[in-house]
């Protein structure tokens, strides 16, 4: 005969009795790491105010140190699980890169003043440099970004970058915009799948259909907002019409924000690495309200609200960001390579879209 205590071991009594211990349940598999931001507007305000004052006092020289301080603050307050990120770029490297870019722009301006021929040649040369700028900018930013002592990296080549940063815009214009979504998809594929974390490579599963759907929807929103804007401009009294004409940028702003939100969601939610899938679920209406509210407060406070606005945007985006575990994969630190900052600063100056 056997008796058992609830939740206790089962014991068989009598000759040859066997005592069996209860099977211990397996510990639950750890879930994906949680992303959060612990910075505050007041903390960043002090950094921003110091950066702004010293940048003005040094005629822009301190801007390189300001960039590093800002990125280290946001990296250091962004938590993934139980660890934060780290940004290791050297201010001197950024300053040298900015000096080179400034020299290029000054040379271009001088050429425009004295010779339209040399100015045209300079523009062509600058256009041909875009692939180099794109690759170097992404490499510099990723290789100086660390998580748990493991750095990101980028292994894209200049020849492939030329397809999307030189030939891509030309193809888009010649096709009257029809191939713009396809070129954007191929460019994102190039940027994401050549990125890695340690030895773990990223993968991207976006499709041309995803991009065409987003671009067509953006065009439709632009047309609707523009029609509504024109109707208001024609029907309102003259005084109000003049005021409305001052904010003629609204249709472009709304369409650009919608495009950015949809593309950011797509890029992150179709990207995976190291056994994890990312999910980003930004809301266009929430982002529109956030941006307009920030803009209003920046204008009212004469720019003082800028650091608070930046913290609000970062906190909102991370709140909409999540990670899903697919499988376990060991990530090994890859080789550390040195990348100059010139391309990174050129990419910032010319506003190149470098993806995620």
Q: How are the SSEs ordered, and which strands pair?
A:
Elements: E1 2-4, E2 10-12, E3 19-20, E4 35-37, H1 41-57, H2 63-76, E5 78-80, E6 83-87, H3 91-114, H4 116-143, E7 145-147, E8 150-154, H5 158-174, H6 180-193, E9 195-197, E10 200-204, H7 208-235, H8 238-246, H9 250-269, E11 271-273, E12 276-280, H10 284-300, H11 306-319, E13 321-325, H12 342-350
Antiparallel strand pairs: 1-2, 2-3, 4-5, 5-6, 6-7, 7-8, 8-9, 9-10, 10-11, 11-12, 12-13
Task: Tell me the number of helical segments per DSSP (H or I, 4 or more residues long).
Answer: 12
Radius of gyration over C-alpha positions, nearest whole angstrom: 27 Å
Largest sheet, strands/sense/barrel: 10 strands, antiparallel
Structural class: alpha+beta
The coarse silhouette is globular
- Uncertain segments are 1-30, 328-356
Question: Strand-and-helix sequence, N→C?
Answer: EEEEHHEEHHEEHHEEHHHEEHHEH
Beta strand count? 13
The termini sit apart by 67 Å
Mean pLDDT: 83
What is the percent of helical residues? 55-70%
Quote the beta fraction: 5-15%
Would you give an account of this structure?
The chain has 356 residues and is α+β, with helices and mostly antiparallel strands. 59% of the residues lie in helices and 13% in strands. A hairpin with a 6-residue loop joins strand 2 and strand 3. It is globular, with a radius of gyration of 27 Å. The chain starts with a strand and ends in a 6-residue tail after the last helix. The N terminus and C terminus are likely disordered.
């Amino acid at each position: 005969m056997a008796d058992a205590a609830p939740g206790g071991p089962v014991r068989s009594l009598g000759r040859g009795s066997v005592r069996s211990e209860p099977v211990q349940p397996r510990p639950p598999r750890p879930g994906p790491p949680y992303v959060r931001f612990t910075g505050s507007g007041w903390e960043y305000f002090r950094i921003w105010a110091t950066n702004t004052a010293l940048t003005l006092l040094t005629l822009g020289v301190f801007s390189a140190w300001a960039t590093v301080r800002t990125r280290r603050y946001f990296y250091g307050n962004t938590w993934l699980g139980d660890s934060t990120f780290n940004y290791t770029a050297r201010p001197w490297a950024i300053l040298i890169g900015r000096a080179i870019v400034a020299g290029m722009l000054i040379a271009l301006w001088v050429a425009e003043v004295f010779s339209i021929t040399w100015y045209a040649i300079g523009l062509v040369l600058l256009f041909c440099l875009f692939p180099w700028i794109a690759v170097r900018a992404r490499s510099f930013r990723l290789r100086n970004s660390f998580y748990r002592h493991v750095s990101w990296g980028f292994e894209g080549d200049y020849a492939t970058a030329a397809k999307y940063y030189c030939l891509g815009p030309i193809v888009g214009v010649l096709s009257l915009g029809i191939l713009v979504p396809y070129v954007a998809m191929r460019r994102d594929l190039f940027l994401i799948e050549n990125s890695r974390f340690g030895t773990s490579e990223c993968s991207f599963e976006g499709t041309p259909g995803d991009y065409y759907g987003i671009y067509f929807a953006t065009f439709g929103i632009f047309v609707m907002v523009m029609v509504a804007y024109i109707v208001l401009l024609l029907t309102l009294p003259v005084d109000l019409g003049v005021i409305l004409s001052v904010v003629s940028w609204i249709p472009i702003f709304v369409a650009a924000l919608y495009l950015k939100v949809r593309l950011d969601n797509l890029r992150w939610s179709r990207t995976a690495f190291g056994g994890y899938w990312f999910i980003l679920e930004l809301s266009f209406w929430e982002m529109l309200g956030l941006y307009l509210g920030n803009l209003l407060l920046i204008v009212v406070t004469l720019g003082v609200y800028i650091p608070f606005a930046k913290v609000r945007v970062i906190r909102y985006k991370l709140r909409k960001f999540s990670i899903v575990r697919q499988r376990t994969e060991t990530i090994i630190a890859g080789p550390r390579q040195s990348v100059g900052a010139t391309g990174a600063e050129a990419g910032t100056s010319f506003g190149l879209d470098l993806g995620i």
